[in-house]
Amino acid sequence: MTVQDVLSPFTAWKNLFRDPVTVRDPLTERPGAARYRGFHKNDVAECIGCGTCEAICQNAAIDMVPVDGIETKEGDSGLRPQIDYGRCCWCALCVDVCMTGSLTMSNEYTWIDSDPDAFRFVPGVDHKSWDDAELGYHRPDGHRLTPPERIVMREMDPERRIGNFEEIVDGYSVEEARAEAERCVACGLCVATCPAHMSIPDYIATIREGDYEAGLKLLYETNPFSQVCGRVCTHKCETVCAVHHEGDPIAIRWLKRHITDQVDRDRYVDIIGRPAGETGHKVAVVGAGPAGLTAAFDLARMGHAVTVFEARKHAGGMTRYGIPEYRLPYDALDADVDVIRAMGVDIKCDTPIGDKVTMTGLEKDFDTVLVAIGLHLGRSTRIPGSDHPKVAKAVDLLRAITDGETIDVPKTAVVIGGGNVAMDIARSLARLQKQIHGEVGMTVTALEDFSHFLADPEEVKESFEEGIEIFDARGPREVLVDEVGNVTGLKTWKVVSIFDDKGRFAPTYDEGDERIHVGTMVIEAIGQAADVALLGEALTEKLEWNRGRITVDADGRTSEPWLWAAGDCVNGPDVVHAVADGHRVAASMDAVLKAKELS
Amino acid sequence: MKDLTDRLGTLFSLGDITEKRDDLAFVSVAPDLLRAVITHLRDVEGFTHLVLLTAVDWIEGGQFQLTYLVHNRTRARDIGLRVFIDREEATMAGIHDLWPTAATYQRELKEMFGIDFPGSPRIDEEFILEGWTDIPPYRRDFDTKKYAEETYFHRPGRETFDPATHMKDKLYPGEAS
Amino acid sequence: MALFELDRSQYPEAKADGSLDIDLASGKYLKLWQGPQHPGITGNMSVELTVCGDEVVEGRTHVGYLHRGFEKLMERRTFIQCFPIVCRICVPEPDFNEYCYAAAVEELAGLEVPERAHWIRTLILEMGRINSYMMYLGGQAGSFGMGVIGQWATYVRDLMLDRFEEMTGARIYHMFILPGGVRDGLPEGFAVRMEETLREVERALKDINDVMYCNAVFKKRTVGVGVITPEMIEPYGVTGPNARAAGVAKDVRKDQPYLVYPELDFEPVTGSVSDIYTRADVRRRDVHVSIDLIRQILQKMPKDGPVMTRLPNVLNWKIPEGETYIRGECSRGEYGYYLVTDGSGYPRRVNVRGPSYTHAMALLEKLIVNANISDVAGLMVSLHTYPPEIER
């Protein structure tokens, strides 16, 4: 203890001469920092109402609520997050996890109101003074709570795959599938977009749990073509995947395939479950494609006796005769068909409607009939020379290849068309060219330019890898034939526009940009039509039609009370859509049959 | 840590040994051996600092795991002794005479898990909870959510919608699945 | 220096568990409650005193006024959902919870944290340490009637909170260190503003030194009072400045270096006799160490590079079975998290080991005996206690 210790404390008096350090008007002079986590903002136009913010909130402060002016549509639930600031702890996990980046925070932290309920509102909808605040917390770059990159699917190299028809895609291993399944945020936005409304988040969850049998059961509840769709589905679900907004969508299709790959095929029927007891009703289905067989599967499980009439040698419809084997191996399709057979469905192949079996006969012998005949007639461009024997339709060639018929494989060929069918025939012929001639000589000419291409991007990418030339925005003008009558190529003009200002199909060309594509064969792949002749004149007369397609109601029922129609022949080509159609028809027929019992 | 667990192994019959890091290992010991092992660690091996004493409820196996974490300040390393005791008759001998501060841990374990340490000072005195009548709350079978729902009430007016269900109701209400 | 040992022969014999048979009806004794509300302690805690005259015969610590059951709450939250609540276990120095929890999760989940995140975490912990000491200084001075120190300390703490705000987006509960790294890098110009703040801290420390430490009254009331003898260190689990003041040069930052402490140059601050004064002095000097560490960090840390590792989808995050213990040196001593996982998406058990658990319970109850009533508040504060880390 010194004198110093007595005097030193008096130095505090020097503060008398200091300016105060307090902020005089903190409400206006003291805005929150640039990163401040204040009241939320939500860009409701970007928000898709996926509810991951609600899922991650550890305080249960967020509710997903419908709001006026925001419609429920594909890829947007129409719900928006409502935040209860009596519970919010400002941790911003909701901002960090937000799948679209729409949810952010302002730097506003002062707000006084005498009504406690005012502190529960929908950011971006219930307008607040801080809605336009530039400062405030935004998820920093690189800070992600969900992995944006898809687990890469291994596939065969172009060099190895071009000489054969083996399946290109390897399928995920168990570890890869689990890692991909873990990326799913289980928002369920995809379910509405899937035509069959498959329970996607639920079956993805079974992959995370490793419970494949539960997964398989879920798949077959909504889709008897799960093995097929696991490979060739148009996967519209992936386009609305919440992860897609700031990353790669979940590989829903490949995950579905993974479940079907993991379960021993002998176990399928036991897992899916046996049909119900017989009802005594008889149903006929014309066409053993996805729509017809899905309806048959459902109806058989309900206990009805179903007979399917198929003109071709094998069941499967377009999935067999349209889709090449390298995309969908026949054994996968056969396995799905076997499951359907195991449900008691009698599939009669090689039984076309016409001579022995007629629609009139079916009407008499069965309680109800479904027509699901697909689109098997190729359309023609009708350009000069298109009636030449060396000008073929893609669907005809694909069928011939599937049935193992020998076809005259040209060294060079030109395909007209830019859809998946064009790619299918080009890639199938390329494989045959490689096998027979040792090299690929395929050219594809499409009306659309690459930014509006109809075929899936991976089809285009893989076609290029396989050495196929693709010319976009080319309009076919003439099939060139030499003096001795052989096809030598195709003449095209550059496409200026495809549709007129009313949106009608009316292509215009730049005649100055002409090109000759060399080929001794030309293949038209510009669309298909249904072969409705089998209905017979009388029935065709009775039915209502709309631009070449049978008119049906929402349940697939035609104007004839005993007849339903479904699948590509009424909706246009899409496997999973056909499956969904089959379900609808089955439900509708079942209701009608049950009503008959009661009356 | 291997040297230490090896030495311990020659003196005592040890259970599972988990080398977690270079400076941290967990060793399972039988309840009646705990006192001998921890005294040895304290007096011979220099683990003089009792870091913590706590419990883990393995309700599925009907056991409590008691974890005694001791620290050697000189060598800067830790060893965690795991003792598994029966969940139904949860009783364990105290170590409050080795570390007076252990009495606090034991008092908390009695209150929060219902694990008794007979003879531990003020073991039955309330520590954190006052007037608690339910089962010891840190046991796994005490459901905090259920307790909160029964004890408190939500402010009315909240309702939430599941996106997938809402979309079904709006976009395809009649259809199956 | 006279140690506070008075004649206890006039009081009843202690029983086996240390408690006394006090006959209140005799009129000789008085029960007195210190707390649960009083300015000396951050949070709520009370000491039930039995006094004879102005001398404490027995003291019993009571906690539970702030019990929120964090450890149990975490058992029903996913690993990412635990992250926002851990900081709330300790108001004045929340970041230690964030760090210990994140490090425990990272170890059990096998996550590699980017280098720059380690630097930022260290920076945050040292900033938090200064703030925690500032709150302590205010409380310690206040317990002896020096209210102005608390105002100065709070001002400096507020400046540091400004730095926290611009870096983390929040002032008190930063929620910035999360499993896998930290949320973001440092804002533009941060080092410059930090240097200004550090100068203010130094200026305040000088004033506080002049008015509080070099003060006859403060010395008179604190030197030789509430001594923690070296023999008490181990039985009572004493760590941090409380132990270092007794000459035990143990500092987790040095002994089991974590984060980037191996790359920083510092020495643990120690004293010779752990009385109230020396403990206060150790803490004052520790602030200077922290200031120096922050300067070193800002100078040495990498200027760019990632601050966050790639996390799995946190909504489906499961961590394999395991258990671990992570410790660090917080302003009050050893802070640690014992985390047990069972392979599910939720922690099986989390146990938070706060230094106050031993300091404010067994140790305080020991030290308080024979103290003068007027010294009780100063003694409590001198152990630098935060009750929420006792009851959690």
TrEMBL record, chain A:
Domain 4Fe-4S ferredoxin-type: residue ranges: 38-67, 79-108, 175-203
Matching SUPFAM superfamilies: 4Fe-4S ferredoxins, alpha-helical ferredoxin, Nucleotide-binding domain
Metal-binding in keyword set: yes
Domain of life where this protein originates: Bacteria
Keyword Iron included in the entry's annotation: yes
Gene Ontology MF annotations: iron-sulfur cluster binding; metal ion binding; oxidoreductase activity
Gene3D superfamilies: 3.30.70.3270, Alpha-helical ferredoxin, FAD/NAD(P)-binding domain
Any one Pfam family match given in the protein's UniProt record, by short name: Pyr_redox_2
Database matches in InterPro entries: 4Fe4S_Fe-S-bd, 4Fe4S_Fe_S_CS, DPD_II, FAD/NAD-bd_sf, FAD/NAD-binding_dom, Helical_ferredxn
Key words, A-Z: Iron, Iron-sulfur, Metal-binding
Protein name, UniProt field: Oxidoreductase
Organism: Rhodobium orientis
Lineage, uppermost ranks: Bacteria, Pseudomonadati, Pseudomonadota, Alphaproteobacteria, Hyphomicrobiales
Automatic annotation (TrEMBL), chain B:
Domain NADH:ubiquinone oxidoreductase 30kDa subunit: 27-147
Region: Disordered, residue numbers: 158-177
Pfam family, one: Complex1_30kDa
Gene3D superfamilies hit by this protein: NADH:ubiquinone oxidoreductase, 30kDa subunit (3.30.460.80)
InterPro entries named among the record's database cross-references: NADH_quin_OxRdtase_su_C/D-like, NADH_UbQ_OxRdtase_30kDa_su
Domain of life where this protein originates: Bacteria
GO-annotated molecular function: NADH dehydrogenase (ubiquinone) activity
Family recorded in the similarity comment: Belongs to the complex I 30 kDa subunit family.
This protein's name: NADH-quinone oxidoreductase subunit C
UniProtKB/TrEMBL annotation, chain C:
UniProt keyword Transport, yes or no: yes
Membrane topology (UniProt): Peripheral membrane protein
Keywords, comma-separated and alphabetical: NAD, Quinone, Translocase, Transport, Ubiquinone
Recorded GO CC terms: plasma membrane
Domain of life assignment: Bacteria
InterPro entries xrefs: NADH_Q_OxRdtase_suD, NADH_UbQ_OxRdtase_49kDa_CS, NDH1_su_D/H, NiFe-Hase_large
Coiled coil: none
Cellular localization per UniProt: Cell membrane
NADH-quinone oxidoreductase subunit D domain mapped to chain residues: 151-392
Molecular function GO labels: NAD binding; oxidoreductase activity, acting on NAD(P)H; quinone binding
Entry keyword Ribosomal protein: no
Entry similarity comment: Belongs to the complex I 49 kDa subunit family.
Function as written in the Swiss-Prot or TrEMBL entry: NDH-1 shuttles electrons from NADH, via FMN and iron-sulfur (Fe-S) centers, to quinones in the respiratory chain. The immediate electron acceptor for the enzyme in this species is believed to be ubiquinone. Couples the redox reaction to proton translocation (for every two electrons transferred, four hydrogen ions are translocated across the cytoplasmic membrane), and thus conserves the redox energy in a proton gradient.
Name of the protein described by the UniProt record: NADH-quinone oxidoreductase subunit D
Organism listed in the record: Rhodobium orientis
